[in-house]
Write a structure and sequence with these properties.
single chain; 409 residues; alpha/beta; 6-stranded mixed β-sheet; 24% strand; globular
Length: 409
Protein backbone atom coordinates (compact mmCIF):
# COMPACT_ATOMS: atom_id res chain seq x y z
CA UNK A 1 0.00 0.00 0.00
CA UNK A 2 1.20 3.52 -0.85
CA UNK A 3 -0.99 6.47 0.19
CA UNK A 4 -0.11 10.13 -0.30
CA UNK A 5 -1.63 13.04 1.62
CA UNK A 6 -0.99 16.70 2.35
CA UNK A 7 -0.79 17.98 5.92
CA UNK A 8 -1.55 21.64 6.59
CA UNK A 9 -2.86 23.68 9.53
CA UNK A 10 -3.27 27.11 11.12
CA UNK A 11 -4.75 28.95 8.17
CA UNK A 12 -6.28 31.64 10.42
CA UNK A 13 -8.68 32.88 7.74
CA UNK A 14 -9.83 36.38 8.63
CA UNK A 15 -6.47 37.31 10.14
CA UNK A 16 -5.39 40.94 10.11
CA UNK A 17 -1.84 42.21 10.48
CA UNK A 18 -1.91 45.52 12.35
CA UNK A 19 -5.29 46.28 10.77
CA UNK A 20 -4.46 45.07 7.26
CA UNK A 21 -6.60 42.33 5.71
CA UNK A 22 -4.85 39.11 4.60
CA UNK A 23 -7.59 37.70 2.32
CA UNK A 24 -5.52 38.05 -0.85
CA UNK A 25 -2.66 36.08 0.71
CA UNK A 26 -4.99 33.36 1.94
CA UNK A 27 -6.70 33.12 -1.44
CA UNK A 28 -3.33 32.77 -3.16
CA UNK A 29 -2.30 30.06 -0.71
CA UNK A 30 -5.51 28.06 -1.12
CA UNK A 31 -5.21 28.22 -4.92
CA UNK A 32 -1.60 27.04 -4.67
CA UNK A 33 -2.64 24.26 -2.29
CA UNK A 34 -5.18 22.89 -4.76
CA UNK A 35 -2.64 23.12 -7.58
CA UNK A 36 -0.16 21.07 -5.53
CA UNK A 37 -2.77 18.53 -4.50
CA UNK A 38 -3.70 18.05 -8.15
CA UNK A 39 -0.12 17.99 -9.45
CA UNK A 40 1.03 15.55 -6.76
CA UNK A 41 -2.02 13.30 -7.17
CA UNK A 42 -2.69 13.14 -3.44
CA UNK A 43 -5.22 10.78 -1.92
CA UNK A 44 -6.16 12.97 1.04
CA UNK A 45 -5.90 16.45 2.53
CA UNK A 46 -5.55 16.83 6.33
CA UNK A 47 -6.18 20.25 7.90
CA UNK A 48 -5.17 20.20 11.57
CA UNK A 49 -7.11 23.07 13.08
CA UNK A 50 -7.34 26.85 13.39
CA UNK A 51 -9.22 27.29 10.16
CA UNK A 52 -10.22 30.76 11.32
CA UNK A 53 -8.54 33.51 13.28
CA UNK A 54 -11.49 33.95 15.63
CA UNK A 55 -14.40 31.90 16.90
CA UNK A 56 -16.74 34.35 15.15
CA UNK A 57 -15.06 34.82 11.77
CA UNK A 58 -16.16 37.48 9.28
CA UNK A 59 -18.44 36.34 6.46
CA UNK A 60 -15.67 36.87 3.90
CA UNK A 61 -13.45 34.35 5.71
CA UNK A 62 -16.23 31.75 5.82
CA UNK A 63 -16.94 32.28 2.13
CA UNK A 64 -13.24 31.74 1.36
CA UNK A 65 -13.35 28.44 3.27
CA UNK A 66 -16.52 27.18 1.61
CA UNK A 67 -15.35 28.26 -1.85
CA UNK A 68 -12.16 26.27 -1.27
CA UNK A 69 -14.07 23.13 -0.32
CA UNK A 70 -16.32 23.42 -3.36
CA UNK A 71 -13.37 23.95 -5.69
CA UNK A 72 -11.45 21.09 -4.08
CA UNK A 73 -14.33 18.70 -4.62
CA UNK A 74 -14.82 19.90 -8.19
CA UNK A 75 -11.17 19.51 -9.17
CA UNK A 76 -10.33 16.48 -7.03
CA UNK A 77 -13.54 14.48 -6.60
CA UNK A 78 -11.75 11.43 -5.16
CA UNK A 79 -9.52 13.24 -2.66
CA UNK A 80 -10.47 12.56 0.96
CA UNK A 81 -10.63 15.70 3.12
CA UNK A 82 -10.40 15.67 6.93
CA UNK A 83 -10.58 18.82 9.07
CA UNK A 84 -10.47 19.38 12.83
CA UNK A 85 -11.17 22.46 14.93
CA UNK A 86 -8.38 24.35 16.67
CA UNK A 87 -8.42 26.55 19.76
CA UNK A 88 -9.22 29.63 17.65
CA UNK A 89 -12.23 27.92 16.05
CA UNK A 90 -15.77 27.65 17.38
CA UNK A 91 -16.61 23.94 17.22
CA UNK A 92 -20.40 24.50 16.96
CA UNK A 93 -19.95 27.12 14.27
CA UNK A 94 -17.53 24.95 12.30
CA UNK A 95 -19.84 21.94 12.22
CA UNK A 96 -23.04 23.93 11.62
CA UNK A 97 -22.62 23.10 7.93
CA UNK A 98 -22.42 19.33 8.60
CA UNK A 99 -25.09 18.59 5.96
CA UNK A 100 -23.01 20.37 3.34
CA UNK A 101 -19.85 18.56 4.48
CA UNK A 102 -21.61 15.22 4.17
CA UNK A 103 -22.78 16.10 0.66
CA UNK A 104 -19.23 17.02 -0.33
CA UNK A 105 -17.71 14.00 1.40
CA UNK A 106 -15.67 16.14 3.82
CA UNK A 107 -15.03 14.81 7.35
CA UNK A 108 -15.07 17.63 9.93
CA UNK A 109 -14.63 17.08 13.67
CA UNK A 110 -15.42 20.12 15.79
CA UNK A 111 -15.39 18.77 19.34
CA UNK A 112 -14.02 15.68 21.06
CA UNK A 113 -16.33 14.72 23.94
CA UNK A 114 -15.21 11.62 25.79
CA UNK A 115 -16.78 8.40 24.49
CA UNK A 116 -15.53 4.84 24.79
CA UNK A 117 -16.22 4.12 21.11
CA UNK A 118 -14.25 7.18 19.87
CA UNK A 119 -17.27 8.63 18.04
CA UNK A 120 -16.44 10.92 15.08
CA UNK A 121 -12.81 11.03 16.16
CA UNK A 122 -12.04 7.76 14.38
CA UNK A 123 -12.56 7.63 10.63
CA UNK A 124 -11.60 5.02 8.05
CA UNK A 125 -10.35 6.60 4.82
CA UNK A 126 -10.73 4.56 1.66
CA UNK A 127 -8.65 5.59 -1.33
CA UNK A 128 -7.66 4.07 -4.64
CA UNK A 129 -4.14 3.62 -3.24
CA UNK A 130 -5.21 1.86 -0.05
CA UNK A 131 -7.08 2.38 3.20
CA UNK A 132 -5.94 4.03 6.42
CA UNK A 133 -7.52 5.35 9.59
CA UNK A 134 -7.53 8.88 10.96
CA UNK A 135 -7.65 9.56 14.69
CA UNK A 136 -9.04 13.09 14.41
CA UNK A 137 -8.83 14.77 17.82
CA UNK A 138 -9.58 18.51 17.66
CA UNK A 139 -8.58 21.01 20.31
CA UNK A 140 -9.74 19.53 23.60
CA UNK A 141 -11.60 21.70 26.09
CA UNK A 142 -12.18 20.70 29.73
CA UNK A 143 -15.80 19.84 28.91
CA UNK A 144 -14.51 17.15 26.51
CA UNK A 145 -12.74 15.27 29.31
CA UNK A 146 -14.09 12.73 31.79
CA UNK A 147 -14.86 14.78 34.92
CA UNK A 148 -13.64 12.16 37.39
CA UNK A 149 -10.25 11.78 35.69
CA UNK A 150 -9.90 15.52 35.21
CA UNK A 151 -10.67 16.14 38.88
CA UNK A 152 -8.43 13.40 40.30
CA UNK A 153 -5.49 13.39 37.89
CA UNK A 154 -5.51 16.71 36.03
CA UNK A 155 -5.94 17.78 32.39
CA UNK A 156 -2.87 16.01 30.96
CA UNK A 157 -3.99 12.58 32.23
CA UNK A 158 -7.59 13.19 31.16
CA UNK A 159 -6.44 14.24 27.68
CA UNK A 160 -4.21 11.18 27.41
CA UNK A 161 -7.24 9.04 28.24
CA UNK A 162 -9.15 10.72 25.39
CA UNK A 163 -6.42 9.80 22.89
CA UNK A 164 -6.16 6.29 24.36
CA UNK A 165 -9.87 5.67 23.80
CA UNK A 166 -9.46 6.56 20.11
CA UNK A 167 -6.47 4.25 19.78
CA UNK A 168 -8.29 1.38 21.47
CA UNK A 169 -11.19 1.76 19.01
CA UNK A 170 -8.73 1.77 16.11
CA UNK A 171 -6.95 -1.36 17.37
CA UNK A 172 -10.28 -3.15 17.63
CA UNK A 173 -11.52 -2.24 14.14
CA UNK A 174 -8.54 -1.90 11.81
CA UNK A 175 -6.97 -4.60 9.69
CA UNK A 176 -3.28 -5.31 10.04
CA UNK A 177 -2.36 -3.41 6.88
CA UNK A 178 -4.40 -0.27 7.69
CA UNK A 179 -2.16 2.29 9.45
CA UNK A 180 -3.28 4.97 11.87
CA UNK A 181 -2.67 8.66 11.19
CA UNK A 182 -3.34 11.02 14.07
CA UNK A 183 -4.68 14.55 13.65
CA UNK A 184 -4.43 16.81 16.68
CA UNK A 185 -4.42 20.46 17.70
CA UNK A 186 -2.31 20.77 20.82
CA UNK A 187 1.05 21.83 22.20
CA UNK A 188 3.19 18.70 22.42
CA UNK A 189 6.15 18.87 24.78
CA UNK A 190 9.32 19.60 22.87
CA UNK A 191 7.58 21.73 20.23
CA UNK A 192 8.93 25.26 19.80
CA UNK A 193 6.31 28.05 19.80
CA UNK A 194 6.60 31.51 18.25
CA UNK A 195 5.17 34.74 19.63
CA UNK A 196 1.93 34.64 17.63
CA UNK A 197 0.38 31.49 19.11
CA UNK A 198 -2.18 31.80 21.84
CA UNK A 199 -1.10 29.65 24.77
CA UNK A 200 -3.83 27.09 25.43
CA UNK A 201 -3.01 27.63 29.09
CA UNK A 202 -0.79 30.54 30.12
CA UNK A 203 2.87 29.62 30.22
CA UNK A 204 2.29 26.59 27.96
CA UNK A 205 1.52 24.52 31.05
CA UNK A 206 -0.84 22.46 28.90
CA UNK A 207 2.01 20.92 26.85
CA UNK A 208 1.35 17.21 26.46
CA UNK A 209 3.93 14.40 26.32
CA UNK A 210 4.55 12.76 22.92
CA UNK A 211 3.58 9.45 24.52
CA UNK A 212 -0.14 10.31 24.26
CA UNK A 213 -0.07 9.01 20.68
CA UNK A 214 0.89 5.51 21.78
CA UNK A 215 3.13 3.11 19.90
CA UNK A 216 1.20 1.92 16.88
CA UNK A 217 0.80 4.91 14.57
CA UNK A 218 2.27 5.87 11.22
CA UNK A 219 2.19 9.67 11.46
CA UNK A 220 0.83 12.47 13.68
CA UNK A 221 -0.38 15.56 11.77
CA UNK A 222 -0.54 18.44 14.25
CA UNK A 223 -1.64 22.03 14.36
CA UNK A 224 -1.24 24.95 16.81
CA UNK A 225 2.49 25.76 16.63
CA UNK A 226 3.19 28.08 13.69
CA UNK A 227 6.77 26.96 13.12
CA UNK A 228 6.92 23.82 10.97
CA UNK A 229 8.88 21.22 12.93
CA UNK A 230 9.22 17.62 14.01
CA UNK A 231 8.78 16.69 17.66
CA UNK A 232 11.14 14.05 18.98
CA UNK A 233 10.51 11.42 21.61
CA UNK A 234 7.71 9.25 20.23
CA UNK A 235 7.31 5.89 18.56
CA UNK A 236 6.45 7.52 15.23
CA UNK A 237 6.87 10.84 13.37
CA UNK A 238 5.08 13.81 14.97
CA UNK A 239 5.03 16.88 12.75
CA UNK A 240 3.67 20.41 12.86
CA UNK A 241 2.97 21.75 9.37
CA UNK A 242 3.04 25.32 10.69
CA UNK A 243 1.11 28.32 9.39
CA UNK A 244 1.11 28.79 5.59
CA UNK A 245 1.64 32.57 5.82
CA UNK A 246 3.48 34.68 8.44
CA UNK A 247 0.98 35.62 11.16
CA UNK A 248 3.28 38.09 12.87
CA UNK A 249 6.45 39.98 12.03
CA UNK A 250 8.39 37.44 14.08
CA UNK A 251 7.38 34.75 11.59
CA UNK A 252 9.08 36.34 8.59
CA UNK A 253 12.47 34.75 9.22
CA UNK A 254 11.63 31.16 8.29
CA UNK A 255 9.91 29.50 5.31
CA UNK A 256 6.27 28.44 5.48
CA UNK A 257 5.21 25.12 4.12
CA UNK A 258 2.81 22.26 3.64
CA UNK A 259 3.94 18.70 4.27
CA UNK A 260 3.50 15.92 1.74
CA UNK A 261 3.44 12.50 3.35
CA UNK A 262 3.79 9.17 1.57
CA UNK A 263 2.71 6.14 3.59
CA UNK A 264 4.38 3.03 2.27
CA UNK A 265 3.78 -0.19 4.16
CA UNK A 266 2.90 1.80 7.27
CA UNK A 267 6.01 4.00 7.18
CA UNK A 268 5.88 7.75 6.52
CA UNK A 269 8.16 9.59 4.12
CA UNK A 270 7.78 13.36 4.56
CA UNK A 271 8.62 16.16 2.12
CA UNK A 272 8.36 19.91 2.75
CA UNK A 273 6.55 21.92 0.08
CA UNK A 274 7.44 25.60 0.45
CA UNK A 275 4.49 27.98 0.11
CA UNK A 276 5.25 30.94 -2.18
CA UNK A 277 5.07 34.22 -0.28
CA UNK A 278 2.37 36.28 -1.98
CA UNK A 279 3.19 39.48 -0.04
CA UNK A 280 6.60 40.45 1.32
CA UNK A 281 7.05 41.72 4.87
CA UNK A 282 9.82 44.28 5.18
CA UNK A 283 11.43 45.09 8.53
CA UNK A 284 13.15 48.32 7.51
CA UNK A 285 16.21 49.22 9.57
CA UNK A 286 15.74 46.32 11.97
CA UNK A 287 19.40 45.24 12.06
CA UNK A 288 20.83 48.74 12.59
CA UNK A 289 18.14 51.29 13.53
CA UNK A 290 19.04 54.94 13.03
CA UNK A 291 17.62 58.18 14.38
CA UNK A 292 14.43 59.70 12.92
CA UNK A 293 16.04 62.05 10.37
CA UNK A 294 18.44 59.43 8.99
CA UNK A 295 15.65 56.82 8.88
CA UNK A 296 13.32 59.16 6.99
CA UNK A 297 16.04 60.00 4.48
CA UNK A 298 16.75 56.30 3.89
CA UNK A 299 13.03 55.59 3.43
CA UNK A 300 12.72 58.46 0.95
CA UNK A 301 15.60 57.02 -1.09
CA UNK A 302 14.32 53.44 -1.00
CA UNK A 303 12.83 52.10 -4.25
CA UNK A 304 9.93 49.63 -4.17
CA UNK A 305 8.39 47.62 -7.00
CA UNK A 306 5.71 49.83 -8.51
CA UNK A 307 4.45 47.17 -10.91
CA UNK A 308 2.71 45.13 -8.21
CA UNK A 309 -1.07 45.31 -7.80
CA UNK A 310 -2.16 46.95 -4.54
CA UNK A 311 -3.08 43.64 -2.89
CA UNK A 312 0.55 42.55 -3.31
CA UNK A 313 2.18 45.69 -1.98
CA UNK A 314 4.60 44.67 0.78
CA UNK A 315 3.91 45.36 4.44
CA UNK A 316 6.58 47.47 6.11
CA UNK A 317 7.68 47.96 9.70
CA UNK A 318 10.12 50.82 10.34
CA UNK A 319 12.73 50.53 13.12
CA UNK A 320 13.91 53.81 14.63
CA UNK A 321 16.35 54.58 17.45
CA UNK A 322 14.98 57.27 19.76
CA UNK A 323 16.99 59.33 22.23
CA UNK A 324 14.09 61.68 22.94
CA UNK A 325 10.32 61.65 22.33
CA UNK A 326 9.23 62.17 18.71
CA UNK A 327 5.49 62.71 18.86
CA UNK A 328 5.13 63.40 15.13
CA UNK A 329 7.27 60.47 13.96
CA UNK A 330 4.40 58.33 12.68
CA UNK A 331 2.99 61.28 10.73
CA UNK A 332 6.39 61.99 9.16
CA UNK A 333 6.89 58.33 8.18
CA UNK A 334 3.41 58.16 6.65
CA UNK A 335 4.20 61.33 4.71
CA UNK A 336 7.33 59.75 3.21
CA UNK A 337 5.51 56.51 2.37
CA UNK A 338 2.36 58.17 1.02
CA UNK A 339 3.38 57.80 -2.63
CA UNK A 340 5.25 54.53 -2.33
CA UNK A 341 3.72 51.10 -3.13
CA UNK A 342 3.93 49.73 0.44
CA UNK A 343 1.52 49.27 3.35
CA UNK A 344 2.73 50.67 6.65
CA UNK A 345 2.36 48.44 9.71
CA UNK A 346 4.05 50.02 12.70
CA UNK A 347 7.09 51.75 14.16
CA UNK A 348 9.55 49.56 16.02
CA UNK A 349 10.89 52.06 18.54
CA UNK A 350 14.31 51.25 19.97
CA UNK A 351 14.49 53.59 22.93
CA UNK A 352 17.62 54.80 24.66
CA UNK A 353 17.90 53.82 28.32
CA UNK A 354 17.10 57.41 29.36
CA UNK A 355 13.66 57.14 27.72
CA UNK A 356 12.50 54.01 29.49
CA UNK A 357 9.86 54.56 32.15
CA UNK A 358 9.19 52.53 35.25
CA UNK A 359 5.78 51.57 36.58
CA UNK A 360 6.00 49.91 39.98
CA UNK A 361 8.90 47.50 39.69
CA UNK A 362 8.30 46.56 36.03
CA UNK A 363 10.10 48.25 33.13
CA UNK A 364 8.10 48.83 29.96
CA UNK A 365 9.92 49.18 26.66
CA UNK A 366 7.21 48.01 24.27
CA UNK A 367 4.81 49.71 21.89
CA UNK A 368 1.09 49.40 22.54
CA UNK A 369 0.72 47.55 19.22
CA UNK A 370 3.02 44.83 20.55
CA UNK A 371 0.74 43.96 23.44
CA UNK A 372 -1.65 41.02 23.25
CA UNK A 373 -5.02 42.10 24.76
CA UNK A 374 -5.29 38.85 26.70
CA UNK A 375 -1.83 39.47 28.14
CA UNK A 376 -2.95 42.93 29.29
CA UNK A 377 -6.01 41.41 30.98
CA UNK A 378 -3.87 38.76 32.67
CA UNK A 379 -1.33 41.29 33.95
CA UNK A 380 -4.10 43.57 35.25
CA UNK A 381 -5.83 40.67 37.01
CA UNK A 382 -2.56 39.63 38.66
CA UNK A 383 -1.93 43.19 39.84
CA UNK A 384 -5.45 43.84 41.11
CA UNK A 385 -6.46 40.40 42.42
CA UNK A 386 -3.11 38.77 43.11
CA UNK A 387 -4.06 35.67 41.10
CA UNK A 388 -4.37 34.33 37.58
CA UNK A 389 -7.70 34.98 35.82
CA UNK A 390 -10.01 31.98 35.68
CA UNK A 391 -10.45 30.02 32.46
CA UNK A 392 -14.12 31.10 32.41
CA UNK A 393 -13.10 34.77 32.49
CA UNK A 394 -10.48 34.26 29.78
CA UNK A 395 -12.98 32.44 27.57
CA UNK A 396 -15.55 35.21 28.04
CA UNK A 397 -12.88 37.76 27.15
CA UNK A 398 -11.90 35.80 24.01
CA UNK A 399 -15.51 35.69 22.87
CA UNK A 400 -15.90 39.43 23.48
CA UNK A 401 -12.67 40.14 21.60
CA UNK A 402 -13.79 37.92 18.71
CA UNK A 403 -17.05 39.84 18.49
CA UNK A 404 -15.22 43.18 18.39
CA UNK A 405 -12.87 41.97 15.66
CA UNK A 406 -15.80 40.66 13.65
CA UNK A 407 -17.53 44.06 13.85
CA UNK A 408 -14.34 45.85 12.79
CA UNK A 409 -13.89 43.58 9.78
Amino acid sequence: MSVRFLHTSDWHLGHQLHGHDRAAEHRAFLNWLLDRAEADAVDALLVAGDIYQTSNPPAAAEQLFYDFLAEARSRLPDMAIAIIAGNHDSAPRLIAARAMYKHLGVHVVGAAPFTRDAGDALQRVQTASGDFWIGAVPFIRPSDLRPSVLREHGPAAATAERYASVYEAYAARAKADEPLVWMGHAHIRGGRPTDSERDLVRGAEEALPPSIFGDGFAYAALGHLHLAQEVEGAAGPIRYAGSPIPLSLAETTYPHQVLRVDLEDGRARVASLLVPRHVDLIRFGQDDPKGPDETLAALQAEAFDGSLPRERWPFIEVSVFLEEPAVDLAERILGVLANKPVRFLRIDSRRAASMRTRLGDRVFDRDLSDLDPEEVLTEFHRAERGAEPSEALLQAFRELQAGVLACES
